[in-house]
Amino acid sequence: MTDHLVDADAPRDLHAFIAGLPKAELHVHHVGSASPRIVAELAARHPDSKVPTDPEALADYFTFTDFAHFIDVYLSVVDLIRTPEDVRLLTYEVARDLARQQVRYAELTITPFSSTRRGIDERAFMEAIEDARKAAEAEFGTVLRWCFDIPGEAGLESAEETARLATDDRLRPEGLVSFGLGGPEIGVPRPQFKPYFDRAIAAGLHSVPHAGETTGPQTIWDALTELRAERIGHGTSAAQDPKLLAHLAEHRIPLEVCPTSNIATRAVRTIEEHPLARFVEAGVLVTINSDDPPMFGTDLDNEYAVAARLLGLDERGLAELAKNAVTASFLDEPGKARIAAEIDTYTAGWLAP
Ligand SMILES: Nc1ncnc2c1ncn2[C@@H]1O[C@H](CCC(=O)c2cccc(C(=O)O)c2)[C@@H](O)[C@H]1O
Ligand SMILES: [Zn+2]
């Protein structure tokens, strides 16, 4: 909500190009995507909550002093989601916001443990997200897939519960494609989650932990070697380790970069210091993502504008960036080819005299 984060420096026609560009979003959190309107509406239903009921006041509420403060605020919003109907509405509205930005495909990170421990029935939870997924695809044409993540700081009980919900054939939703790990990294070493990732991978899920967002490169190495990460959420601190950058480039392990998020949570001091350009120079496949867009006063379009400025990209460069996300996605090959072709057609039409 902090509007100083919105990138006003990119040329206007580049903004218009980005707005129409077909895109894929690979790193966006379910609860973290709730629009100010939805958050305010849910807060009004629950007067015991400290979350403001006025969408305007949310801008201040969503200004963070550090990463721990961000997680505190995030959990106060998680507390507002109490019924399967809340879950269905949130998911459907998130899809609507994505569709508005020409997002054709999104992998949404969901933390089912946070909902089941707050008393939402697990079957009703799965039905709610699946109903919303199917409605969104039919009505908006946006394909949604799920990543179930362990909230690492909630301990191994949360890892066990997340692995169970993700691998039990009677529960696991059709849209589930990957398994993740989020929350604070400090004091939450990645290797302890290996058995849960092993189970998820054995059940056919892709491994996509957050790593190196708020801790150093060793966390990223751990995510690669212990959790068999196929993509890295953030990976910001990889910039400190040339060997790691070379490894990511050689093995084509994409980074899910979320520039504005890193500034808003104070993981990176200023946007000028963001390592995005160093990743590209090292040959790493980077994707651009929004993480928790309304909480960070951003959206995916704005993240592309920020990336265009940091990388000095024109329309063709932006189209390549959008195609990186398609390449790095867990869509099937025909699905990837369809969106890539759409990006090419759009770009050619835009640049035609
Ligand atoms: N930028 C981010 N970087 C990392 N994660 C991010 C980011 N944005 C959003 N998240 C989400 O925050 C959750 C954290 C939840 C958590 O720590 C916790 C701890 C104790 C209890 C409970 C509970 O629910 O009772 C939850 C993660 O699972 C993740 O999905
Ligand atoms: Zn994240």
From TrEMBL:
EC assignment: 3.5.4.4
Names of the cofactor(s): Zn(2+)
Gene3D superfamilies named in the record: Metal-dependent hydrolases
Domain Adenosine deaminase residue range list: 22-345
Alphabetical list of InterPro entries matching this protein: A_deaminase_dom (IPR001365), Ado/ade_deaminase (IPR006330), Metal_Hydrolase (IPR032466)
GO MF terms, alphabetically ordered: hydrolase activity
Entry keyword Hydrolase: yes
Signal peptide bounds: none
Keywords of the record: Hydrolase, Metal-binding, Zinc
Class of this enzyme: hydrolase
The UniProt record lists the keyword Zinc: yes
Family: Belongs to the metallo-dependent hydrolases superfamily. Adenosine and AMP deaminases family.
Identification of the protein by name: Adenosine deaminase
Species in which this protein is naturally found: Streptomyces nigra
